[in-house]
């Protein structure tokens, strides 16, 4: 029913984890971001921002034509709404989940991504960039740690907010962080990793990663050198 346009990145894994939690059938359509597959015309019809993940739902709830959705947060909301799980229907519960989902989309993901870039992928070491984004990720980890001090999951019950955040914590060492500094976050992280559906979702496409060396000069140009014109 679901075609998943995917590459094994934190944003991609959000969707595989949710699909596994929902126990939905899906077909992985690899999008090799290191070789520029995200710029192919057919993919841009589905994801005009030339970023994966994206989905095509061939069995939408209204019974009409297939629905395509891009942006990981929008995909998660769409699937949770359709199947009535992991996103509360009541206004207060829904607002709580959404604010943490949006926090991940607007904060944790972009800042951790910048930390990865300056610490791992930048061809020139820029100390200001490394310090700036390492510190900001540290601050965001602290926000999560405080939120988790008195609750098991980010928004009370287990939800898409937890699934969205967890893949971005997995590479904590590459972000210059130590989970021992954040005991509540560490407890949550380990509880997430113990869930069978999370384990299955995290393993999807591991074989694909070996196909592309994203530190090569060619891949750098594809991933980090695009403008509106190109």
TrEMBL record:
Question: SUPFAM superfamilies of this UniProt entry?
Answer: GST C-terminal domain-like, Thioredoxin-like
Tell me which PROSITE patterns the record gives.
GST_CTER, GST_NTER
Q: Where is the GST N-terminal domain?
A: 1-87
Q: In its UniProt entry, what is this protein called?
A: Thiol:disulfide oxidoreductase
Q: Which Pfam families does UniProt cross-reference here?
A: GST_C (PF00043), GST_N (PF02798)
Q: Give the similarity note.
A: Belongs to the GST superfamily.
Residue ranges of the GST C-terminal domain? 90-214
């Amino acid at each position: 029913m679901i075609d998943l346009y995917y590459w094994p990145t934190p944003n991609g894994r959000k969707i595989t984890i949710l699909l596994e939690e929902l126990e939905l059938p899906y077909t992985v359509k690899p999008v090799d971001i290191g070789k520029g597959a995200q710029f192919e015309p057919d993919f841009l019809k589905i994801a005009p921002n030339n970023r994966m993940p994206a989905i095509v739902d061939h069995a939408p709830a209204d019974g009409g034509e297939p629905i395509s959705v891009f942006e990981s947060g929008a995909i998660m909301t769409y699937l949770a709404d359709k199947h009535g799980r992991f996103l509360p229907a009541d206004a207060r519960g829904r607002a709580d989940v959404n604010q943490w989902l949006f926090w991940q989309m607007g904060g944790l993901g972009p800042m951790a991504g910048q930390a990865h870039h300056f610490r791992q992928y930048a061809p020139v070491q820029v100390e200001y960039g490394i310090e700036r984004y390492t510190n900001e990720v540290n601050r965001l980890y602290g926000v999560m740690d405080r939120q988790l001090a008195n609750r098991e999951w980010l928004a009370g019950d287990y939800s898409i907010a937890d699934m969205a955040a967890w893949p971005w914590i997995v590479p904590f060492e590459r972000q210059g962080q130590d989970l021992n500094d954040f005991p509540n976050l560490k407890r949550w992280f380990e509880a997430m990793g113990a869930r069978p559906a999370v384990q299955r979702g995290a393993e999807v496409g591991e074989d694909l990663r070996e196909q592309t060396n994203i530190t090569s000069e060619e891949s750098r140009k594809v991933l980090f050198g695009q403008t509106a014109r190109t």
